[in-house]
Write a structure and sequence with these properties.
This protein has 229 residues and is α+β, with helices and mostly antiparallel strands. It folds into two domains: 97 residues, no CATH class; 115 residues, no CATH class. The chain is 35% helix and 31% strand. A four-stranded antiparallel β-sheet has the order 4-3-10-9, with no helix packed on it. The longest helix has 13 residues. It starts with a strand and ends with a helix. 19% of the residues are buried.
């Protein structure tokens, strides 16, 4: 992962070598966010306040994944440790690891043609994503799902709406529990095939291999796109 920053001494290119995050890494990261929402008074008006340990959680994940870093000065014997990396740099690197989103219309649009009908009896639904890794853009990431049933839609709605109310709170404080486990389980149940992904230089083909190897954040982004677009 490369960071390109401008500082008092000019432009800097900083290289961070991390091990690939696993399912449990992203699960623990989401837990560490400890996201909460509560009602507060702001200038005499009621407002909602959202709190999260975004920077702290990112630093914890970075430290778990850290292998080495280059481009930093001031280290002893030329060895850079995770403890020496500035906290904002850790957050930017972790944010880069999760840079995946639905593909835009411009990137998915092909040659103009006749308007197609919205199928109500399709067996599968395809979702297109785009992602960035180490500055390189990947635009042709496709996930093909079994068409969701009504029960699947209900489950997704339940996962998305989960909130734990803090008993006795005067500000109606709620804790937003991690949603990644539920979304990943839903993805694993519905996914049929993918395109644009590979393991050991080979395309990711078998459904079992997709479930095993697909990045959890890509699973999350794909299944959210499936149900929300």
């Amino acid at each position: 992962m490369w960071l390109r920053l401008r500082g008092p001494a000019g432009r800097h290119e900083l290289r961070h070598l991390l091990r690939p995050p696993r399912w449990e890494d992203w699960r623990d990261y989401e837990r560490s966010l400890r996201s909460t929402v509560e009602t507060v008074e702001n200038d005499g008006q009621e407002a909602m306040r959202f709190d999260s340990r975004a920077m702290e959680a990112a630093a914890e994940l970075y430290d778990r994944l850290f292998r080495s870093a280059e481009g930093y000065h001031g280290s002893q014997n030329g060895c850079v440790t995770a403890e020496m990396i500035p906290l904002p740099h850790k957050e930017m690197v972790v944010r880069g690891l999760g840079d995946v989103a639905p593909a835009t219309e411009e990137e998915t649009a092909g040659e103009p043609g006749a308007e197609s009908l919205f199928s109500l009896d399709a067996d599968t639904v395809e979702v297109a994503l785009q992602a960035t890794r180490s500055g390189k853009k990947f635009r042709n990431l496709a996930h093909v799902f079994r068409a969701p049933t009504a029960a699947d839609h209900v489950e997704y709605s339940r996962i998305s709406a989960q909130a734990l109310y803090v008993r006795g709170s005067k500000t109606l404080k709620s804790i937003l529990p991690p949603r990644l486990p539920g979304l990943v389980a839903l993805y694993d149940r519905l996914i049929q095939q993918v395109r644009g992904y590979g393991v050991a230089g080979q395309p990711l083909g078998e459904r079992a291999a997709i479930v095993q190897h697909m990045d959890p954040l890509h699973k999350k982004a794909a299944v959210q796109t499936l149900f929300e677009e």
